[in-house]
Amino acid sequence: MEKKQEVLQGAVDLQIFYGNMATENGLNLGIVKLPYYGGIHTENLLIELITNQNEGLAIDSNSIVKARCLTQLHNNDSINILGMAEYQLDTVPQTPTLTQPENFGVTIGNTPTLVRPSNINRYRLHLQNVGSVGVWFCHGDISNCVPYQCLYLPPNAGWDDELKSTASIYAITEDSVTNIVGLEQTINW
Predict the structure, then answer these.
(1) So what's the pLDDT on residue 143?
(2) Alpha-carbon gap, residue 64 to 26, rounded angstroms
(3) Cα–Cα distance between 105 and 115 in angstroms, integer?
(4) How far apart are CA 25 and CA 18, in angstroms?
(5) Which tens digit of pLDDT belongs to each residue from 38-81?
(6) CA 7 to CA 11: how far, in whole Å?
(7) Helix/strand/coil (H/E/C) assignment for every residue in the chain
(8) pLDDT digits over 135-181, tens only?
(9) CA of 109: how far to CAs of 44, 78, 181, 184, in Å?
(10) Which of 89, 27, 29, 103 is nearest to 60 (CA)?
(11) pLDDT at residue 45, rounded to an integer
(12) Closest CA to 74 of 18, 11, 119, 21
């Protein structure tokens, strides 16, 4: 106990204020005693601040926390203050709705063809190759739509977009013509 009292007698007093940009000092949260141990020391100020506050602090983007050292520091001493904040976002609940599935059909040849444009609210996409030749398809840029270098959909096969891609979809055959049919569903928020 005597050693603790001795350390606290040489403690640095740090006064903490909370306010906004417009106030000079703000709300005085109290004085925290930082024990001087003559080396690197970490002190949890949160415990000190909680004991001085009866309720939580409402902090927004204009809030600031200031500190003032009331005690002379020793040569080469410094105080580093690190902070952390937790934000709680309150949102208005919205119930999403799904559109009716939109059926489509596209004839695909040996040049990249747009099957579906990009859709940031795409919820579901199903493709079905109803032709007699295989088709390659890709998400995103038309330049990526090259036979043997993107996704392959054999004749009479289907594909469901489990990744929920929102990018454009292009398709190409090697040298023949085929048909892709499918459906797309969109979610509205």
Answers:
(1) 93
(2) 9
(3) 8
(4) 7
(5) 666 666 665 545 454 545 555 666 677 777 888 887 777 777 77
(6) 6
(7) CHHHHHHHHCCEEEEEEEEECCCCCCEEEEEEEECCCCCCCCCCHHHHHHHHCCCCCCCCCCEEEEEEECCCCCCCCCCCCCCCCCCCCCCCCCCCEECCCEEEEEEECCCCEEEECCCCCEEEEEEEECCCCCEEEEECCHHHCCCCCCEEECCCCEEECCCCCCCCEEEECCCCCEEEEEEEEEEEC
(8) 999 999 999 999 999 999 999 999 998 767 899 999 999 889 999 99
(9) 68, 71, 14, 22
(10) 89
(11) 60
(12) 11
**The pair of three-digit structure tokens given for residue 58, joined into one six-digit string:** 């409402």
Scan for tokens 């709680």, then name that residue: 88
Q: How many residues does the chain have?
A: 189
